[in-house]
Amino acid sequence: MASKRKVIITCAVTGAIHTPSMSPHLPVTPEQIAEAAIGAAEAGAAIVHLHARNPETGQPDQSPEAFAKFLPVVKSRSNVVINLTTGGAPTMTIEERVRPAATFRPEVASLNLGSMNFGLFGMLDRFKDLEHEWERTYLGNKDIIFRNTFGQIEYILTTCAGNDTRFEFECYDTAHLYNLKYFFDRGLVKAPLFIQTVFGLQGGIGGHPDDVLHMKRTADRLFGDAYRWSVLGAGRNQMNIAAMAAAMGGNVRVGLEDSLWDGPGKFAESNAVQVRRVRQIIEGLGLEVATPDDAREMLSLKGGHAVGF
Ligand code: KMH
Ligand code: ZN
């Protein structure tokens, strides 16, 4: 009997795009982040992509101390693959951003493949009641450049070299795929590349099906069978892009980092809700949801025993 293709669900549980006043369900404290990650894993996520926040203010916090409060909890209660952000927040320095991954040597870390405008200001129109002053300043800043120069990308790769950490290569436009190709051709990154194509952020490619096809075609041409494709649709693009990619051979990322929603005007009450919803799509397509160990095999990961936490 033919076996079903396996689809990796990544869940990014809190991130640095949304702010705590936007949704009561956005995880902020270490306990909430741990519960969200474990809940997502129980619902079917093979990988959790994690950021930390200051528990009082909800501000993104990239200190290793902040991550240390939830990493051992998640590891002790779940076999899920842990992926640590090196993106942090677009307002942070590169040295700050790499510290959690360098300290904790996770199986996976994110790596952002190009500099870009990062426009969060559109959300100010939709979310007017903001509890903290930092939220208004952060969201209203129209001059954010998310800096990921060739030198900075190389800095993250060399800082993490020797840790056997593999990467979630975040590509927000076609140029980022070409940037990744530069590192691939020089042997600085190795197959199988896990490419997270990102759609619908202000500053990156849009969320139209043509955009998805264009990124996929470009990645196919540049990397052939040396990569595993995953998609992340921001906001209202989340589930339709996930469905499209799953049907086309891809993997998917959901989570409150990139969308607060469970349908029009309805907040997702947890990360697990979005995982369950995408799981229904995957299974409805006759595909199978990958377990964490399946993901380890598909992405050639070192294993949960080899991390530094
Ligand atoms: N929220 C994603 C679009 C990172 O953590 O490295 C960006 C992201 C970056 O996940
Ligand atoms: Zn992230």
From TrEMBL:
Keyword tRNA-binding in record: no
Keywords: Metal-binding, Transferase, Zinc
Cofactors, names only: Zn(2+)
Statement: the UniProt record of this protein carries the keyword Transferase: yes
InterPro entries: Aldolase_TIM, BKACE
Species: Lichenifustis flavocetrariae
Molecular function terms, GO-annotated: 3-keto-5-aminohexanoate cleavage activity; metal ion binding
Protein name: 3-keto-5-aminohexanoate cleavage protein
